[in-house]
Amino acid sequence: MEALGNLLFNVIMGFVNLLILPWHIFNWIQLETLKEKMNVILLAGMSRELFFIILALILITIAAGIYRRGILRRSIHILETFNGRVGQFAAWFVLLMMLQQVLIIAMGQIFRGNELTFSPLGMNLVNEELQWLSGQLKLYNALLIALASAYTFIEGGHVRVDLIYSAVSKRTKHWMDFFGTLFFFIPSTVLLWWFSWPIMINSALRARPMNIYSSKASFRGFKWESSGTAEFSWVWSFKFLVVVFAGLMFICAIGFLLRNILALLQKDEDIATHYSFEGKRFGGMGMNTPPSS
Predict the structure, then answer these.
(1) pLDDT confidence of residue 250
(2) Do β-strands 205-207 and 219-222 pair in parallel, antiparallel, or remain unpaired?
(3) Of 53, 125, 129, 235, which one's alpha carbon is 20 to 30 angstroms from that of 107?
(4) Measured between alpha carbons, how far is 82 from 68 in angstroms, rounded to an integer?
(5) Mean pLDDT of the chain, nearest integer
(6) What is the mean pLDDT of residues 73-80?
(7) Are residues 247 and 170 in the same domain?
(8) What is the pTM of this model?
(9) What domain range includes position 293?
(10) How far is CA 258 from CA 68, 104, 121, 152, in A?
């Protein structure tokens, strides 16, 4: 009973903090030093207050969407289109990765060089060793995974092995997706964010070492952890991308949850289980056409 009471209290405080969020932001802006402002951000990034503020916003959206379907449609459209645009942007890293790999192979195997220099019109844009550039390809791959995974999910492009899902009706699929998102998808993204936030902070900033139980923070400056080898050494960037991945997948999970709620409420409407950017369909609406209210 005590745990249930604490949960209920935190949910109520989430609505209260959401209501007075502008006041919190104003107080944060009024802080005098960068250190004080950064300390607030460090702790807020993995705080239960932030979680319950977001939860309150989601619950309000669901309640308003049940009352007016247009709100639900527009929320889904915004969340899925955002992740779609981010994923489509990330797709360009495939081309960049391919071109850089070709240049590395050509320079190393044909010209027997050890570095790649690119200085059009006297502007030195690239002057790095091939070993460093080869390691940089890992960053492009990490960017693709972090930025485009949510887009791939929205498109229904992830491989799924099932014995039941493909054989049931569309409405049953929506029920399965609803409960799967509620009990597995959303919690996994929250846990990933919770565990990766302090790891990213410890790698990118010179601050008091953080962990998942941290209740204090002391920002001292920027660190930008590197490996100290001849290869691509931006270690901090990979840890930062894990946080980005968790955030985008959380947004994807919320959009998917709302999509299934809408499908379950609109019994007479054929709403697809996934958005298709190529087919431009969203429950009968085009990708570039904002949902009607």
Answers:
(1) 98
(2) antiparallel
(3) 235
(4) 22
(5) 87
(6) 94
(7) yes
(8) 0.88
(9) 75-293
(10) 13, 45, 52, 18
